[in-house]
Amino acid sequence: MTSFTSKPIALFGSLIISCFLFNANFVAAQTYQINSPSKEVSVRVSLTQEGTLQYRLQYKGKSVIQSSSLGMQLADGDLSRGFQVVAVDSTKVNETWQPVWGEVKEIKNQYHQLIVHLKQQDDKGRLLDLVFRVFDDGLGFRYSFPFQNNLKNFIVVNELTQFSLTGNHKAFWLPGDFDSNEYRPTTSLLSEVDAKKISDDNGEIAVRMVKDASSVQTPLMMKTTEGLYINLHEAALVNYPAMQLHIDKSNFKLSSSLVPDAFGNKAYLQSPFSTPWRTILVSDKATDILASKTILNLNEPTKIQNTSWIKPTKMIGVWWEMHLSKSTWDYAGTQSAANAAELEKMKPSGRHGATTANTKRYIDFAAQHGFDGVLVEGWNTGWEDWFGNWKEEVFDFVTPYPDYDVQELHRYAASKGVKIIMHHETSGSVTNYERRMDKAYAFMKQNGYDAVKTGYVGKIIPRGEYHDGQWMINHYNRVAERTADNEIMVDMHESVRPTGMQRTYPNWLACEAARGNEFNAWSKGNLPEHETILPFTRLMGGPMDYTPGIFQIKLDEYGKKDYFVHTTLAKQLALYVTMFSPLQMAADLPENYEKHLDAFQFIKDVALDWDDSKIVEAEPGDFITIARKAKGKSDWFIGSITDENKHVSIIPLNFLDPKQKYIATIYKDAPDAHWDKNPMAYAIDKWIVDNKTTLKIALAEGGGCAVRITPATAESLKGLKGYK
Ligand code: NOJ
Ligand code: CA
Fold this sequence. Notes:
This protein is of the alpha+beta class.
């Protein structure tokens, strides 16, 4: 590692090239160039004569981001002009670290860093540092405000970061909604983005708040006509609102558009402070985007000293039956109870899902099939009137319904070696949750729970705050920290999309934060392409609780003639590999798994945590094939999925140990399978394979395949043939 400070306009060793450049008017500008370790990514940072700051980015000599401005507009001043460079620092970092859980066992963190220390040339003389980290697959940069007397407490009115693109790229986007990310992604040219004209097929989204028709959310995935893949997002979102991007369609300049609070302000800050990193990933291979670890690398190492209690978790749940309207979250069906005493007097509807008896049925199934946990929703009072009325006091998170025996279920689950997973739906009343969460976590500890799923359905209280504004960002991070203090793992629904914070809080196993599988139960659903886009967008920041594994694809028998899952059954299996998460749910009902125990075997076997991951092939919106090696084992699992078109996956098994023979169990679409016409037709076969084998598997329209590869024993080889 080298580090040095120097005066501007000198020569900065090999790391930074500093020079005067002359533009057409022969106005001098001060410029620093910093290259990635491979030199494929290069970034130039310039100070113009007006003292404004610009950067640009090239990949393999091609422009990716043209000259783009940087700066901040504060309530009491403009931090975008009149700067002079006071000093520049550069550092080289090349290290490796081991995540507590993840897609790979070891992560390489290698980058070149440039810090430009700026001072405004006026009476206040305010200081601002710009930090750039250039990796082989992109750039992260952030604003850093050193402590200073003239900038102690301040309000960000606008962040002036621009990303000036080179053309009208194809984009995979969600509308710039301040409250929801549960949309179908739209694929269009940037010039065609209309965030207010989203088709009604998006279904019942609880809250919508789109103010700017030209704004989109990040991660924003794009592809240029020259075949470059570009991904814009952010890393380490702490004490700051989420960044959305406003598109200027006349020149394809994207600018940071921060989610505001009720006053329209963006962030209330104190120096010293560093913003989240703005990230630009770029490659000529789509597979490199999925393999990138840059967002994780830009996050702080874990704050949790002892991580031994953090365990990747496979669960089932008293959950899908409510989404199917087979049972209800609330005890009393459609009645409403004013308080717990009134509730005691009520008759249960007979359709309540979270009863002691039904939960025991799920615990038995979990124990029989080796699941770690059972999520139980609707166990607590409040569901009679939980949504739509913007009520302050809905749930207290500690009072069970009369037909749910917490102590007995604790005893029963423990006797079977199964954990019950807590559910805290806040219904958006976050002040209420903040007041009650310490007691709620203590209640969990007393009753043997070590994981909680939280949820934020509905408009936020404090009224005027949005799901993705600074206040809520602080809330999500506080929940991650408080649950960690209590040795509790957490899964957040309706939260902001992740930004790699799971590195810092590895107890934060997953978030939903996008449109999950559940939309298939009560809206026009997710298009067959949905899961081929999510890894390039939502999953760039972290694991998703997508809740795959629905086997009963058509939902007619639940009185839902118009609703169904928009994939084949085999594709539901593949999602356990293509959608990385250390928390995975087998989302369907036990009785639906009992009808297909042969296919269910894959869900039982599939790992949650990995030594290695190979992105075999990928194209956003079309197909994805990923092979992963189970943590600490010799087993490999492969998932391959396609959109509404057929696809043949060619999978060379060259990653296998050459000294070993393996058995591959292939779960695939039957020849006549089709996501709409025949979704449940699957076939399972077994072959002998080795590292010279190339699998060639036909995926149906909207289909997929899942493969388990396990070292062969003399016994297991009997009766099997080599793959052909
Ligand atoms: C929405 C969540 O995504 C879903 O999983 C949950 O069952 C409901 N809210 C009720 O909390
Ligand atoms: Ca949701």
